[in-house]
From TrEMBL:
Protein name: glucarate dehydratase
Pathway connected to this protein: Carbohydrate acid metabolism; D-glucarate degradation; 2,5-dioxopentanoate from D-glucarate: step 1/2
Source domain of life: Bacteria
Phylogenetic placement of the source organism: Bacteria, Bacillati, Actinomycetota, Actinomycetes, Micromonosporales
Keywords, sorted A to Z: Lyase, Magnesium, Metal-binding
Length: 432
């Protein structure tokens, strides 16, 4: 069956995001995403999801019209068209990556949602799930990890500084304040009770390392069987990282991005008793040779949003296999199209030996889909339906687009948002 892309629609959306703390600041009250639709007529639509920041949106919208007439099976043609439309532009990113921007990183990031949408279309056209297009399932259930954050109870009131970002979502989130080990354990209990997660990640880099080690010890005591991870987002020096690694020996399945840069990570890796993982120092093809030859990381957190879609993420996993490097999966705040894409990819990756990260619990049920894929028993069952296995709820998409139009946020900026409440706050890596 043949089909051609007739129309490309990019819709920015905003959804409520709780005040989650990290080494760069605190999440703003609204998280931005862009929903990409490739329309082929007769109701045939391919879906993709990506970042919603204004500079990225502009690039997506520049590329969109150039895809009209493309065969959705021609993803090499898609890559060429994206490259031509971008013309070698180098656009920075605000999603936790380091190592600077590059035209290659920009192209991979812009290509990704269109590639995912093409794979969704291909699946619809041949009546098979995307996982089958990626080599077939190696598992029917893709495990995800509980993703714990230090957090405030709620965003400060809407009539105060929050008015600067266009007000607050009407409802808060069900997770209480978590600023110490007891709060983190309570959050884990709530999240695991609802979703059944079988592993736990703590976002660190918020408090001095000793406090975060105490939280890890408290989690170990409360959940003796579950693998634990700690991710301070490069908040520590090499010396601090080595000390924390030694103090957490036997407690962590991996330590994620303790310190900035490949050279620093390599120094820590040599001394650390556990593997180091990254979504900050090996984040593009150009990072692989130095990252792997210097043995800076034992696990790469793949992320199809910046590795250039699902097939290129599978290529990354194959390279990791060659080098004996493990594969896990990274996440930013996202909606259900991204979860479906991660699930299809996770189903087809033999190398995915760790539960993937997801921010899904922090969405608190908000989505653009009519039936989001549920997380039960800590995993998502791979849908049998064609393509990604999900469909848009047009009313929900309209509501989330309205949120976007109403809120004043146009780029993610955790540091500036935190500075509203703590004027002296600065972003420093390393901080300790
Ligand atoms: Mg990370």
């Amino acid at each position: 069956m043949t089909a051609r892309i007739r129309e490309v629609v990019v819709t920015p959306v905003a959804f409520p995001d709780p005040p989650l703390l990290n080494s760069a600041g605190v999440h703003q009250p609204w998280a931005l995403r862009a929903i990409v639709e490739l329309r082929c007529g007769d109701g045939l639509i391919g879906l993709g999801e990506t970042y919603g920041d204004a500079p990225h949106l502009e690039l997506l919208r520049g590329v969109g019209p150039t895809l009209v007439g493309l065969d959705p099976f021609d993803t090499n043609g898609l890559w060429r068209r994206v490259g031509r439309a971008l013309g070698g532009v180098d656009a920075p990113d605000r999603h936790g990556l380091t190592g600077g921007s590059s035209p290659q990183k920009t192209a991979l990031r812009v290509f990704s949602p269109f590639e995912v949408a093409c794979l969704d279309l291909q699946g619809h056209l041949i009546g098979r799930p995307v996982a089958d297009l990626l080599g077939g399932r190696v598992r029917d259930r893709v495990p995800f990890s509980a993703y714990l954050f230090y957090k405030w109870a709620a965003h400060p009131p809407a009539d105060g500084p929050a008015s600067l970002v266009g007000g607050l979502p009407p409802a808060g989130d069900p997770y209480p304040e978590a600023l110490d080990p007891a709060g983190i354990v309570e959050q884990a209990r709530l999240m695991i009770a609802q979703y059944g997660f079988g592993s736990i990640k703590l976002k660190g880099g918020v408090f001095p390392p000793g406090e975060e080690i105490a939280a890890i010890r408290a989690l170990r005591e409360a959940f003796p069987e579950l693998p634990l991870r700690l991710d301070p987002n490069a908040a520590w020096s090499v010396a601090t990282s080595i000390r924390v690694a030694e103090e957490t020996e036997g407690l962590l399945e991996y330590l994620e991005d303790p310190t900035p840069g490949i050279a620093g990570m390599a120094e820590v890796a040599e001394a650390a008793p556990m593997p180091l993982a990254t979504n900050m120092c090996v984040v593009s093809p150009a990072d692989i040779p130095p990252g792997f030859t210097q043995e800076a990381v034992g696990v790469v957190l793949s992320d199809h949003h910046y590795w250039g879609g699902l097939r290129r993420s599978a290529e990354l996993a194959a390279m990791c296999r060659t080098w004996g490097v493990g594969v896990s999966m990274h996440s930013n705040s996202h909606l259900g199209i991204s979860l479906a894409a991660m699930t299809q990819l996770g189903a087809a990756l033999p190398e995915l030996t760790y539960a993937a990260d997801t921010h899904t619990p922090w969405q608190c049920g908000v989505d653009v889909l009519d039936r989001p894929l549920p997380i039960t028993g800590g995993a998502v069952t791979v849908p049998d339906a064609p393509g990604l296995g999900v469909a848009l709820d047009r009313d929900a998409l309209a509501r989330l687009h309205e949120n976007y139009l109403r809120c004043a946020i146009r780029e993610r900026d955790d540091t500036s948002y935190r500075r509203i409440f703590e004027p002296g706050y600065t972003r420093r890596r390393p901080r300790w």
